Amino acid sequence: MIRVKMVGMLRKGNVSPMSADPLTLQFSSPSEPEALELIDELNKLLDELYHPDDNHFSLDVDEVTEGRGTFLLARLEGRAVGCGGVRLLDDGRAEVKRMYVRPRARGRGVGRRILASLEDEARSRGATALILEMGGNQPEARGLYTAFGMGPIPCWGEYIATIDNSICLGKEL
User: Fold this and answer.
1) 68-99: per-residue pLDDT in tens?
2) Contact 92, 127 (CB under 8 A)
């Protein structure tokens, strides 16, 4: 069963308490149909931007389930427009995975809200740092992560093998 809970309905500075926020975040599963659609769009985009051997699409559902992480769907006026997950690593860090916002929803704060909620979830699970890997052909995404306080860190695990194509970022929590 998919656990559904709304998070981030009203964030300080986004809307007044008297207005309805058209953007909501919902705990979900990456195997839920709307999440699969978003992840498929992300995979197609990454295939266009990078050599297929350089892509790391793996994310097992159990890596973002209760106790090990979380996965969020962003809905703008009821429609799924973005997603992102965070999985806890054995060393106490939390890795951001499968961040994506549909092009028509970009520039509306969706990515910032997803990332802020993922950071909150990681912190609530005791993570000491938020980390991620990305390719260099996504300047907008890198801009979001940098504005969020993430900076260069050494690559780890599977990303070491593709260090020429990987940018690893992180921040202490």
Assistant:
1) 899 999 999 999 999 999 999 999 999 999 99
2) yes
